[in-house]
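haha ok so turns out i had the wrong file open the whole time. this is the CORRECT one, sorry everyone. sequence first:
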Amino acid sequence: MSCLLAVPAQCQRIAIKTYTTADGLSHNSVHRILRDSRGFIWFATAEGLSRFDGYGFTTYGTAQGLPNPHVYSILETRAGVLWIGTGGGLCRFASRRFDEPSSPIFITYPLIPGARPVVRALAEGRDGTLWIGTSSGLWRSASTGSFENVHSRSEAVAKALRAGSSNKAARTYMLA
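then structure:
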């Protein structure tokens, strides 16, 4: 025996707030949005990185150590490390220690000595490997703490990584 209950549908209006540079966002052109494990919402924009805490924005740019103001990608690893891909290379958010106010907020990682390729895509493999899609190829983190180039034809690889970042099946295939 089956039973069917008629329940009236209830619609609720969801409040949507648009944030712009007038609210503190670093730029109105946003490339990526990430909610981190602490609840902050990060915005990768054409003029820096913005962090929203639910009340206001904290903006990070070249003055705070980003290698380039154009931020294309953000990734938080399972270990809680925040990686940022910019128009001038790869960096990691290090924050500042209260006892060392002059310490850098961002640590830049040179993939190619003397060059800073555009980092357009970031992904983490099941084994914790960091994959980096750049204008100069596909890179991955090595066990030595450095990075190694695994493919030189970059734009096609970067596009594939970007596509895979929004498609779980593609991401799994790419990183398997």
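Confidence is low (pLDDT under 50) at residues 166-176.
again sry for the mixup
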